[in-house]
Design a protein that fits this description.
The protein is an alpha/beta fold and about 375 residues long. It is built from 14 helices and seven strands. α5 runs antiparallel to α9.
Length: about 375
């Protein structure tokens, strides 16, 4: 929505909007898009070069810190999958006495006493064999019993091996604790997980390599920047040529509409204001310069004081750009204040013409304007 009232004409007080109007009139939007792509690439390289040059001048402390961080993590040599097994080993080692007590009682019940399960199974084995010798159909019981007895004996063997492994040297427990503490310290300093710690070191290595090799990087960036700048300048020239050709044509068209609105001898020009360096919108901006009467000094539209003059100039500009203006809804809030007679009729006619390409809403006190509307709301 573009709102125009006695004191606000956004389209005319903004040089960026004025430039957009000129480009739309020149049909140079595609040229401007091509230029902008080249400019963004150039600006990105320029920023990268500036950051790298700045780091070269004042980053010895950062280099020392990066080297320390790389060595700190490298000396520890953390592995992504070592934390879980370490913590499990520590838990077993810390509870070794309790686990040995339980395992000892279990072995005593299963195999290491006169009343152990395995000794009792020997009696059971004799009974099952007597059963089988009397009734061969019970041979299945014998096979199942033998299988259970073998599994129990294997379990007893595993328990004995387990007990042997539980005899952990206190020095080993201390080493496990030291390792866990070291890994926790790394996580507090460099990341929430060992994976993040390792990734931190990789980034630090890459950054240090980039800083230490920044001389070559700077030389390459400077070379790339020159090549891209040539492309930017080349596309900027095309954009400037399109604007230079369109500016006088647009000025004449606006002037013709201004004559209809009572500015019989006014003068309007579009000045191009060049930039020292490329900008997102090109190599220049523009200023719409206006002199309402002969002998009066020309001034940029953005500093014209008279709201009445500004309103009619705005209407002339909108009329000149009716087909190129992309804003679909125009609101005119009493821009016909302080005019009457033939000029009021001309204002209404211009609004009616604009309404062929836009939705126009006008707040007015003039019958000459209201009479040309398609619909009315009375307040």
């Amino acid at each position: 929505v573009d709102l125009h009232g006695p004191h606000d004409h956004q389209s005319l007080i903004s040089q960026d909007r004025q430039l957009n109007m000129l480009d739309a009139f020149a049909g140079s939007e595609k040229v401007r898009i091509n230029y902008l792509e080249a400019y963004k690439k150039w600006a990105g390289l320029a920023k990268e070069l500036e950051e790298l040059s700045t780091s070269e001048r004042a980053n010895e402390q950062e280099i020392d810190l990066l080297r320390f961080q790389i060595q700190d993590i490298g000396d520890a040599d953390p592995k992504p999958d070592e934390v879980g097994p370490l913590e499990q080993r520590h838990q077993v080692a810390s509870n070794a006495a309790h686990l040995m007590s339980i395992t000892g009682k279990l072995l005593n019940q299963l195999a290491d006493s006169d009343t152990s399960v395995i000794n009792q199974l020997a009696d059971s084995a004799r009974l099952i064999r007597d059963l089988q010798s009397t009734d061969p159909q019970t041979s299945e019981f014998t096979r199942e019993f033998d299988s259970a007895q073998v599994e129990l004996e294997e379990m007893v063997g595993s328990l004995r091996s387990y007990v042997e492994d539980l005899e952990i040297d206190p020095k080993e427990i201390s080493e496990i604790e030291d390792r866990i503490n070291l890994l926790e310290t790394l996580k507090r300093k460099y990341g929430n997980t060992i994976e993040e710690v390792i990734a931190f070191r990789e980034r630090a290595v890459a950054k240090l390599s980039k800083i230490e090799g920044r001389g070559d990087a700077i030389a390459k960036l400077e070379s790339d920047l020159k090549k891209v700048r040539k492309a930017v300048d080349s596309k900027a020239v095309k954009l400037t040529q399109a604007r230079r050709a369109a500016a006088p044509k647009l000025s004449r068209r606006i002037a013709d509409h201004l004559k209809d609105l009572g500015f019989k001898r006014s003068k309007i020009e579009i000045d191009r204001v060049p930039f020292e360096f490329p900008a997102p919108q090109g190599a220049e901006t523009v200023d719409f310069i206006f002199a309402p009467n002969p002998g009066e000094p020309s001034k940029p539209l953005r500093i014209i004081a008279s709201s009445g003059e500004m309103a009619r100039v705005m209407l002339a500009v909108k009329s000149a750009l009716a087909k190129q203006d992309a804003i679909p809804l125009l609101v005119f809030d009493e821009i016909d204040a302080n005019v009457g007679g033939e000029i009021a009729s001309a204002v209404g006619a211009k609004m009616s013409e604009l309404a062929k390409n836009h939705q126009v809403i006008s707040i007015t006190h003039l019958p000459q304007v209201a009479a040309l509307a398609d619909g009315h709301c009375v307040v």
